[in-house]
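## retry 2 of 3
previous attempt timed out at serialization; input unchanged, resubmitting
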Amino acid sequence: MANIFRKVYSVVGALLMAEYVLQLYFIAAGIFTIANADDNQKSVYSAFKNADSFMGLHAFNGWLVGILIIAFFAISFAARLPGRTIGLNGLLLVLYIAQFVLAHTGIAALSALHGINALVLIGLTGYLTGRNWAFGRRVAPTTAYKSEPVPTPR
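## retry succeeded, writing output
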């Protein structure tokens, strides 16, 4: 039964990685909408208004990421993953909570850590997903040198 949960864990990890790509897209689209505005009041106002939709998608998708991280953590128990992996999944949840807090501090220099924390979330999720991938066969590591042939007894 744990085998099916390991596969579910892999799928949720892949979905999380896709959600992160969407997060980066939405925030970049919002920023570039503003950055590409002409230098006049009407254009800047219009750019901020248009960027709001991308920022809203970024916020909504952030909630979906949170739900998937909670599911990822819960499934790590059902999949009977090693304690270290479960602990790293717990760390992922703590980092997500920090991500939410950083987005709402109101202090620009502190909120800027939101982007750095996002990179840590992406890296840790990628590590956990890759390390515990349940699809395909695993290839045994090979040695870097060629061994000598073993002589056959006569």
